[in-house]
Each structure stands twice: as structure tokens, then as C-alpha cells.
Amino acid sequence: MGASTGERTDGEDGDGGTAAGAPSESDAGEDLLSNEERVLKFVEERGGRVKQQEIVQAFDWTEARTSQILRDLRDDGELEGFRLGRENVLKLPDDESGS
Asked: What is the pTM of this model?
């Protein structure tokens, strides 16, 4: 009765989730988030700072797709990026403009 249709109707994650460090606690809710929201949540859960390559691996996206999503987040001021050696590091912006 649709058990092998590829659709998840029971709330269980069908992609493993934890092997690459991706969140597994609420994978059913993850499906409802936009890619940008998923990235922000991922960065937040890792202390507010991650390497871009971690995002590529965790979400199994191409580097081009990841770069596009991250560029949109940086343009919107929701994420900051800098180089550390040969790697791109992403972090949540400091909340110093709260006044």
C-alpha cells in the first residue's frame, strides 16, 4: 500500500541523516524548510561556524549549487564567509547592530 513508492508518510527519514553529520532529530520537519533555512539551521547547530565543504557533504549538493545558495545568504546578510587557508568558512553574522 505505497510502502515502496519512495514517499515518506510515517515521518521516518529515508536518507540516513546522521552519516555525514546532518541533523536527524526532526528530519520530517527538515523537508519543509527551504535550502537556505536548512543551511542556516545546520550552521547554527554547529556553533555558528562551518566549512563550506561540510555543507556540500552534509546535504549532498554539488559545489556549484552550494555556492549559489550560500551567495544568496551572504547577499541577504544572513551568513558571512571568509577564507581560511584554502577553505571557505561560513559563519552567522555577529549581532552587533541590534540597537
From this structure: 0.65
